[in-house]
Amino acid sequence: MDQRIINLFDEYTHAPLSRKEFLDRLVKLAGGTALAAAALAVLEPGYAQAATIPADADDLVTEDVSWPGAAGVTMKGYLVHPKGKKKRGAVVVIHENRGLTPHIKDVTRRVAKAGYVALGVDALSVFGGTPTNEDEGRTLIGKLDKQHNLSNYLAALDYLRQRPDSNGKTGCVGFCWGGAMANSLATHDPKLNAAVAYYGTQPPTEEVPNIKAHVLLHYAGLDERVNAGKDAYEAALKASNIQYEQYVYPNVNHAFNNDSSPARYNAGAAQQAWERTLDLFKKQLG
Q1: Model confidence over 148-185: pLDDT tens digits?
Q2: How far apart are alpha carbons 88 and 165 in whole angstroms?
Q3: Cβ(231)–Cβ(259) under 8 Å?
Q4: Total-model pTM
Q5: Cis amide bond preceding 16, omega within 30
């Protein structure tokens, strides 16, 4: 697919452009309405086709859970863990900028399948939960109070540590908007053991010395917007002697891990990044 179309979609999902302006520009770039529709079919999520682990998998337990959040809000999430009475490391899974979608629930099940207590937090709990319309989800993400949102995720980590099936060790993994939150959690939670950020913007460099977790950073080679801050972040990590690993996957786009969006998904990079993610969790969370 024309890289200009992928860049336009990235602008739409992050600026955001209005739906009308995005479609008007897409038609011009694609060369007509029919070609634009074909491009849209591989750009927008196909959740059912991309699901890798069924919600009713025999070896997993899934449940809807809640915990106290900031300003009196009740936070909600999708909790998944392997069957059996065993204390395990726990992982907060942080969604993209459209909420707790079926794709992120599937990622939460993937983490659980690897042997962890996994919690997909719904940051939009403060608005009643993630809407089915992604444009509405992106709009609501922009309305979140940043400090309250951070507190809600810190509370999610505390909730996991207090569970009887937790061994007390915690990690987080986030994608895009969630990648930025993973970096933020690393700078604000001294108990965090591992933080994995997929193509997430970086925290202020003055906060980097606060990091106690082992940080793993995955970047897409074609993602100029996010990559603009990676060198300064890496320099700050080195200066503070923070344990970290950073990988740039060449010739892949932002959201290369999202297999519900075929135009940007890259199977090779996604598999390599996921293996590195699970390797870190194994080392840091048990």
Answers
A1: 999 999 999 999 999 999 999 999 999 999 999 999 99
A2: 6
A3: no
A4: 0.91
A5: yes
